[in-house]
Amino acid sequence: MTTLTPESQVGRMVDNTVDRPGERAPLVLNMDTFTQVTATVCRVSEAEKAPLAWYIAFAGSLGLLGLLGICIGYLIVTGVGVWGLNNPVMWAYDITNFVFWVGIGHAGTLISAILFLFRQKWRTGINRFAEAMTIFAVICAGTFPGIHVGRVWFAYWLFPIPNQMEMWPQFRSPLLWDVFAVSTYFTVSLLFWYTGMVPDLATLRDRAKGKVQQLAYGLFALGWRGSNRHWHRYERAYLLLAALSTPLVLSVHSVVSFDFATSQLPGWHTTIFPPYFVAGAIFSGFAMVVTLAVPARELFGLKDLITLRHLDNMNKVILVTGCMVGYAYAMEFFIAWYSGAMYEKFAFINRAFGQYWWAYWIMVSCNVITPQLFWFKRIRTSIPIMFVLSIFVNVGMWFERFVIIVTSLANDFLPTSWDLFTPTWVDIGTMVGAFGLFFTLFLLFCRFLPMIAMAEVKAIMPQADPHGAGAGKHGHDHGHGHDKPRDGAHGHH
Amino acid sequence: MSRFLFPRWSNLLLPTIIVAGAVAPLYAIFFVAYGLSPKTLEVGYQPQQPVPFSHALHAGELGMDCRYCHTSVEKAAHASVPPTQTCMNCHTQVRPESPKLAKVKESYETGLPVEWVRVHKLPDFAYFDHSAHVNRGVGCVSCHGRIDTMEVVYQSSPLSMGWCLDCHRDPVDKLRPAGTITNLAFDPVTELSESERLSLKDKFHIAPSEDCSTCHR
Hints:
The complex is a heterodimer of chains A (493) and B (217).
Chain A: H1 7-10, H2 34-46, H3 52-78, H4 93-117, H5 123-148, H6 174-207, H7 211-220, H8 228-261, H9 273-299, H10 308-338, H11 342-353, H12 357-372, H13 377-380, H14 383-410, H15 425-448, H16 454-459
Chain B: H1 13-35, H2 38-41, H3 55-61, H4 66-69, H5 84-91, H6 102-110, H7 130-134, H8 140-144, H9 161-169, H10 188-191, H11 194-203, H12 212-215
Helix pairs in contact in B: 5-6
C-alpha cells in the first residue's frame, strides 16, 4: 500500500495530548512554516495518483452506489411493496436510515459552528472534512424520505407549492417541519462549507499545473486574491454563517424527533425526545468523524495536522454525549414506570425483553457501555481501539433508531394487529447502498478538495500571532516553544 | 504563476446569477401552479367524434332535454351515453338517408355500438356521482358549459381538484331550482336573488364535504 508520508513526519514526535500548566499544547506538529502546511494538504490533490487504498475503497464504494441505484430503480418501478413494510410496521429501514444519516451530519455543524463561536482552536484540523461529511450524510438522509413516499414523481408535494388541486402539506404536521428543517440544514451547511473553502480553493488554483485544474479550482475560488477586503468580508460571512448554523445543531434533530414525539404511540410519545435525539446525533456524528479521520490521516499523511489531541478531544465529546444518551435510555424507562401508564410500561419492557430484545441490547452495549471506555486516556489515544469503538457507536446508533421505530410500531395498542418486521433484500441493499453513496462522495472530496482548512490551521500556529512566542522564531521547535501563554485576549479555556 | 482569474466580462455574471436564482423558484412555482394545471392542459379538449352529431342542433335549436339521451343522470353516478336505438327513435323517420348517419345506421344493423370518444374524464381515484349533484340544484351547465351551442363537444371546465373544491367551498352561486337543472341558458346569479339561492341551499340541505374521503374513497 502506498501512502503519502512526508519527510517531516518521520522525525520528531511530540505528545500533544499532555496538558502542561501555563502552556498551550500545539495543535500542529512538526511544522515550522505555513508553506509546510500548504504542501502537506495540497499534496493529496496534487499527487499524480492517489494511494492504492483509495482506489480500492473507491471501487468498493462505487459498487455499493450501483447497488443503491438498482434498489431505488426497482423500488420506483415496482412500488414500496418491495420493502418489508406492512401493517402495522409502516416505517422501518427507510426512516431508520433517514434518522441515522441526519444524525451523522450533526457533528459537522457542531464542529464548524459551535466550536467556532467558542473559539475552540482544535476544530480547524477537522472542520473541513467534518462539514463535508455533514453534507454527504444529509444527501444520504434526504434520499430516504424522497423514495419512501411511494410515488416519487410526486415528491415535490412535500413542498408547499400552489397547485391546481388546492392541496397543501399539513402545516401542523412535524413531517412538513422536517422538510423545512432538513432542507434549511443542507443549504446552510453547504454554504458554510463552501464559504470556508474559498481561500483554500484559491491556494489550489495558484499551485495547479494543469489547465483543467486551474480553471476548475479558479471557477470555484470565485476570483479570491487574498486582499484585505476579501479577508474582511470572508471573516464576516463566516461568522454570520456560524451564528446561523448554531441553532440548527439543536433544531434539526429536535424536529426529526417531533416526527415521533407528537404521535400517540407508546415508545414515541415522549417529551425527552428532542434533547435525547440531539445528544444522540452529536454522539453518532463524532463517532463517524473518528471513523473517517483515522484512516484518512494515515492514508494521506495528515497526522501532523489531525493530531492525537484532536482525536482525544473528539473521543471526549463521544464520552459526554454517550453518557447523555445512556441517561436518556434510563430516563425513558423511569418515566415509563413513574407515569403509571400501562401501555408505556409495556412498550419499554417489550423493547428490552420482547421479540426485538437483541436489537435493544446491541444498542445498549454499543451506545452506553462502549463510550464508557473513553474514560481511560490510554483508550482515548489508541488509534486502533478508538477506530473499533467508533464503529461500535455507529452500529449502536443505527440500532437505536431501528429499536425506537420498529419496536414501537410492531406492538401498538391493538394486540390483534401486532406483527414483526422482516427486511427484504431491497431493504438491506438500500441501507448498504447508502454507505456507497456516502463514501463515494467522501472519497471524491478527499481526492480533489482541500481536506483540511489550510488558512484556518495556519491561523492557530504560533507564527500567526504577532505578539506570541512564535513570532520571529521560524525554525524553532514548537514542542517547547511557548514560554508564556499566547493570545490572552481570546480567553481560551 | 499562472492562475485563473475571472475576466472582466464575468462581472455581469453575478447579477445574472442572482436574478436567475431568484426567478428560478418563482418559475418553478408558476410552472406547477399554471403550466401543469388542467386549466392549461385539459380545457378545450375537443376530440373528433365518429359521427358528426351536433349538440348545438339537438339540444340548442331543437330544444331537446339533456335527459332524453343521457337517461341515467338523475338516478346513477354515471350519465349514460345513449345507445344507437335512442338515435333511431327519430332517425328512422327524420332524414333517414343522410350520409352523416351512415355510422349510426351501420351500428343499428350490426348491433355494435358507435365508438364515441369520451370528452369528460375523471381519474379512477376520484369518485363522482351525477345524481347527487343534479338532484340537488347543480345544473349540467355548471360543469359542462353551454353544450347547447357546441357543434362538437369540448371540455369547458378544468375538472381539476381545485376546481371541484371551489364549488364545494362556496356552492351558493351554482344552485338553481329543480326545474332548471337542464336549462343551460339559466344563470342563477342573474335570475335569482341571493336570498333565493341561500334558501335553495337550505332546501337541498347543501353542506358539501371537503374531506379527502368524499371523493377519494
